[in-house]
Amino acid sequence: MSGTSGKWLVKSEPVKYSWDDLVRDGETAWDGVRNNQAALYLKAMKVGDELFYYHSNEGLEVVGIATVSKTAYPDTTDPKGRFVAVSVKPGKKLDHPVTLAAMKAEPKLKDMAMFRQFRLSVVPLTANEWKTILAMSKKG
């Protein structure tokens, strides 16, 4: 399965749960994921895996780096008990947010899973995709 690099991108609408909310809380359950493919990605995550935190719907940009602090467990928001959650902790805010437009314009990112399965809230990244986005965040 892809994502074996231990690098991921997770999406959240900032009006529902923003990067600042994660920083304030110190840790959260990444729950409410109701897509089978995204749930498989959650199950593949390991403690210490790094996640780019992407603001969807508003902002449309990667704003920070979080880490997985607890592997998959039953999602308490799922009444049928079919889906899982992971716990995540904030790492660091990026020097400069990396916009969706900038990522789409970067040839090194043309094959990103995020662009193939845009509706997924959790997608794996290759080591090179991770490095590219991180380098973009340093340039501003």
From TrEMBL:
Superkingdom classification of source: Bacteria
UniProt-listed SUPFAM superfamilies: PUA domain-like
Domain EVE: residue ranges: 8-136
CDD domains: EVE
Pfam families: EVE
PANTHER family in alphabetical order: THYMOCYTE NUCLEAR PROTEIN 1
Name the UniProt record assigns to this protein: EVE domain-containing protein
Organism: Sphingoaurantiacus capsulatus
